Amino acid sequence: NQSLPPPSSLPAVPPLPLLQALQARAASSRGWRAGPASGQPLRYMLNLYRRAADREGRPRRGRSLGTNTVRLVRARSHGGQPWAGRWYVQPLTYRLEGQPAAEHLLRAAVVYLPSLPLAHGRLLCALELVATSETPGALLSPAARTRRSWAEVDVTPYLLPGRGMGSLVLRHVCVRAGRAVGHDAPVAPSHPFLLLYLNDTQAGLAPPAAEPHRHRR
Amino acid sequence: DTGMLAHDLPGYLREQGGEKSDCSLRPFPVSFAQLGWDHWIIAPHRYNPRYCKGACPRLLRYDYHAPNHAVVQSFVHQLVDANVPRPSCVPYRYSPISVLMIERDGGILYKEYENMIAESCTCR
After folding, report:
1. Distance from first CA to last CA of chain B, Å, rounded?
2. If B33 and its partner were Cys, which of A168, A188, B38, B72 is the partner (CB 3.0–4.6 Å)?
3. CB atoms inside a 10 Å sphere around CB A166
């Protein structure tokens, strides 16, 4: 049983809140190694870009993406401590308001790593759709394995068609498989990210408003 | 007055010889930092929008894709009223580029923008 020893077996235990605070600090000082570099979304998009365009930025023939716009939406995590023993359960929300009206959704997919190597064993992960008033919960199975062991789960049906798409709420569930040795620093897997394949019906450069506020030269 | 044209044909033909000042496509590699867009554009690293520059020859060759209006305007400039300018040397065909950029909320956007590289010039 990997969970922390019950407080009763600890030596004279300080009051519980302090214990939690100490444990939390201990966990952080043990250096929660984030999952693979947090730049994973950026690396994924750079690979996507290199497949779609040459070094001058010219789209390659046959446009492998099938559209002119792909937006990567990062997850916002909420909820408390995701780890419980071998289990990691992290609720994630992808906010979709404010999509430009000219961008029409063609397809949406969540990209994550279904299996992550650990020092001892592996971290096996899956995605769950959290039930809402419109849709029942569901375990999402990857539609396709992309390069470098990423898995893509098609979530198009769960995104409201057209404007005003609210948000997508998922649960990222992982379990540590294999022998747990001592106090392995739990590796927090990086958050899955959402890809929106959109058709931008305007060819023009993004209006200045889209550009982060900058002093004009 | 075709007589005059025929008389001056050598001059015209010499000009057709592709003076350096003729309307043509020229390279201009630029960085997104120079455009002040480097904060949000990650790729491509190199961008050469190219541009058209040069005088439109008085007798517009067919390969300039010049509309009839430009041919007429050119004659008006020479034969009727020099205040009417010669046709201008401007891009004729373009091609798109794909851009990878960071969005304000930390998202990452791949987008193809039309008409970002001039591929040929015309006189209009």
Report:
1. 23
2. B38
3. 14
Query: Which of B111, B115, B117, B119 best probes binding to A when mutated, by most A CB atoms within 10 angstroms?
Result: B111
d(CA A216, CA B18): 40
Q: Beta-strand (E) ranges in A121-160?
A: 122-129, 138-140, 144-145, 151-154
List pLDDT tens digits, range A133-179: 777 788 887 766 555 588 999 999 888 664 445 789 999 999 988 87
Residues paired with B102 in a beta bridge: B108
CA dist., res. A149 & res. A201, Å (int): 33
* Amino acid residing at A110: V
Q: Is there a contact between B98 and A53 (Cβ–Cβ < 8 Å)?
A: yes
Report which residue type is found at A1: N
Spell out which chain A residues touch chain B, with contact meaning CB-CB distance below 8 angstroms. Answer: 41-42, 45-46, 48-49, 52-53, 55-59, 65, 68-74, 95, 200, 203-206, 210-212, 214, 216-217
Give the closest of A45, A52, A214 to B39, CB-based: A214
ipTM over 0.90: no
Residue A172 CA from chain centroid, whole number? 8
- How many residues belong to chain A? 217
CA pair distance A1, A184, nearest whole angstrom: 14
Region at B18 (left for phi over 0; alpha for psi -120 to 50; beta for the rest) = left
